[in-house]
Design brief:
Elements: E1 7-11, H1 18-28, E2 32-34, E3 38-39, E4 54-55, H2 58-66, E5 70-76, E6 79-84, H3 85-93, E7 97-101, H4 104-113, E8 118-123, H5 126-136, H6 141-157, E9 163-166, H7 170-185
The protein binds guanosine-5'-monophosphate (5GP).
Amino acid sequence: MNKRGRLFIISGPSGAGKTTLVSKLIEVDKSIYLSTSSTTRAIRVGEINGVHYHFLSKEFFENKVKNGEFIEYANVHENWYGTQKSTVETALEEGKSVILEIDVQGAKQVKEKCPEACLIFVTISLEELKARLKHRATDSDEIILTRLLNSKSEVEASAEYDYIIENDIFDAAFEELEAIIERERG
Ligand code: 5GP
């Protein structure tokens, strides 16, 4: 029988570079399973349904909540996001390391249900964050402002995380992330 896999949660403000770090991680380590979340937010240019997210209608999402299909779910920047329980459980049973890239509210819910989960917070300096969000240019100024304000409360919640990675320099942050995963999965 496989040894049960390790559950990792990665959170941090939008624009802090979580997605890029995680993408590189799953590229170099094929044994890691990245959970694909469900969301009610609109699909962005370049995103693929079923790859970046499962893009669901609000009704469909609410049905899944009612049926208890999510291990966690939360409202982030006025849209719903959730993690499918069954796929995460199957990957853990297969002995895989599983990564959930979710917000701080979701991380709290998962930690309550699975206290052994390892929580990693990725952050960057506020100046760098503003510059990156502007540079991304997929969002309006109003949305950028909401995200910046939200990032403040996210950073406050980071006190409950096991690790905090500063991502002003990508290569250094990536090395740190790899070392944490290696150490924690034993
Ligand atoms: P974005 O819409 O920019 O892809 O993501 C916005 C925020 O939602 C990010 O902070 C991301 O970590 C969070 N998020 C993505 N998927 C989930 C999920 O399944 N659950 C929760 N709680 N947050 C999520």
